[in-house]
């Protein structure tokens, strides 16, 4: 005690940046300890990359090497599996078991929790990208293009899918989130240009599918990494719109319990 009625440490909430950093570290540790999520985020994309690159199962529509076509799509799939599917399921059950209810009474604001979860997703994605890139290079992948364009696509894609995943987890019951997130994952795997070119779909359907965030992410990455294209402004714009809408809706409608 330094003076009458004054105590140390000073009571009150920690600085917001410190709270977000601490929560992000906790979210990352929890994510890496979850075997089921690691299966979804690491094992499945790796197996798909190896399988479809080495075995002639589907017609990718690629003119050159199959792995040159598949690698960008699998990178997009890794973002989808971590930022959307894995995060939606984990957050949905945290909400069901009362974890989020307890966080709601802490000084951490709702948007701060979302920011922390997104940071944890980014850390996991870095490890995914390193692993998948190493596998793709071992399979003969020859990437091209500007690393800045790739980074912007991955960041905006993460923001878009993170917002949508949190929106789903914060508005639906845990069981509904589990079913819906896995269903969306499977549908986008097939219809999002990940392993099958969108050129294989009818013109009207392709026009709609190209507006999906997974199509913009996989298509943008493919344009840059396979074809060496410049900044994919159209795909970045689509992802930015989804990110603003998804994160905005999640911040507005997310329920702690």
Structure description:
With 257 residues, this protein is an all-alpha fold. It has one domain (14-51, 64-251). It is built from ten helices and no strands. Helix 1 (16-33) packs across helix 5, helix 5 packs across helix 6 (147-171) and helix 9 (213-225) runs antiparallel to helix 10. The two termini are 40 Å apart. The model has no long low-confidence stretch (mean pLDDT 85).
Distance between the termini: 40 Å
- The DSSP helix count reads 10
What would the principal axes of the Cα set say about the shape? Answer: elongated
Count of the separate structural domains: 1
Helix content: over 70%
Going by helix content, strand content and strand pairing, the class is mainly alpha
Low-confidence stretches: none
Strand content: under 5%
Write down the overall mean pLDDT. 85
| Cα gyration radius (Å) | 20 Å
Please write the string of helix (H) and strand (E) elements: HHHHHHHHHH
User: Can you summarize the main beta sheet?
Assistant: none
The total beta strand count reads: 0
């Amino acid at each position: 005690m330094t003076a009458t009625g004054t105590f140390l440490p000073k009571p009150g909430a920690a600085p917001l940046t410190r709270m977000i950093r601490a929560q992000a570290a906790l979210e990352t540790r929890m994510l890496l300890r979850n075997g089921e999520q690691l299966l979804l985020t690491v094992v499945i994309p790796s197996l798909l990359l190896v399988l479809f690159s080495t075995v002639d199962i589907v017609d990718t529509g690629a003119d050159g090497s199959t792995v040159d076509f598949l690698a960008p799509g699998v990178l997009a799939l890794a973002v989808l599996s971590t930022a959307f599917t894995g995060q939606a399921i984990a957050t949905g059950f945290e909400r069901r078991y009362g974890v989020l209810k307890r966080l709601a009474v802490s000084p951490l604001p709702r948007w701060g929790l979302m920011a922390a979860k997104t940071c944890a997703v980014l850390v996991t994605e870095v490890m995914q990208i390193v692993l998948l890139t190493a596998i793709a290079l071992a399979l003969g992948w020859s990437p091209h293009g500007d690393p800045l364009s790739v980074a912007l696509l991955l960041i905006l894609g993460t923001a878009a899918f993170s917002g949508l995943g949190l929106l789903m987890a914060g508005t639906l019951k845990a069981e509904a989130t589990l079913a819906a997130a896995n269903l969306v994952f499977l549908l986008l795997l097939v219809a999002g240009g990940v392993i099958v070119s969108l050129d294989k779909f009818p013109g009207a359907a392709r026009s709609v599918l190209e507006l999906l965030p997974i199509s913009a992410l996989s298509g943008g990455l493919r344009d840059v990494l396979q074809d060496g294209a410049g900044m994919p402004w159209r795909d970045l714009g689509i992802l930015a719109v989804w990110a603003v809408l998804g994160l905005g809706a999640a911040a507005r409608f997310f329920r702690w319990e």
